[in-house]
């Protein structure tokens, strides 16, 4: 893989701050790959730390984000939580034996994932390596090239 430029992504939902995402190109097949930092989510302008804090609050693992989210960020976090809830079965199957047996509704699943895997960043790393998935979706960007 060779460096192949970069592009800019928004750091926060307000769109005021940006960060660089490095791109690489395979000289043999010509495919390009963008490498997101482990602290970022695919297709969402949310930091993993903020997402984890919000999910912890929703699952009653801890109390509130500090600082509290603004209106735009709160909307993004709510949509992320609702998306997570729709993926409970997929995530439970993916993490498999790492979780205790039995069905896990959304809030319980998040608590079990936090106990079994630790941080949201560790969950994202595991999902990307083991099944080419993310917490909030099965994205084409995580699938291997054809």
Question: Which key phrases capture this entry?
Answer:
flat; two-stranded antiparallel sheet; 146 residues; alpha+beta; 5 helices; three-stranded antiparallel beta sheet
Could you characterize what this model shows?
The chain has 146 residues and is α+β, with helices and mostly antiparallel strands. The protein has one domain. It contains 5 helices and 5 strands; from the N terminus they run E-E-E-E-E-H-H-H-H-H. Strand 4 and strand 5 (44-47) form a beta hairpin. The radius of gyration is 16 Å and the shape is flat.
Q: Secondary structure elements and their pairing?
A:
Layout lengths: L1 E9 L7 E8 L6 E4 L4 E2 L2 E4 H11 L12 H16 L1 H8 L10 H11 L3 H12 L15
Mean model confidence by pLDDT: 87
- Helices and strands, in order, run as EEEEEHHHHH
Catalogue the unreliable spans: none
Number of domains: 1
Shape: flat
Largest sheet: 3 strands, antiparallel
Question: How many distinct beta strands?
Answer: 5
Distance between the termini: 17 Å
Number of helices: 5
Assign a percent range to the helix content: 25-40%
Rounded to the nearest angstrom, the radius of gyration is: 16 Å
Based on helices, strands and strand pairing, what is the structural class?
Answer: alpha+beta
State the strand order across the main sheet: 1-2-3
- The fraction of residues in strands falls at 15-25%
Short description:
The chain has 146 residues and is an alpha+beta fold. It is built from five helices and five strands; from the N terminus they run βββββααααα.
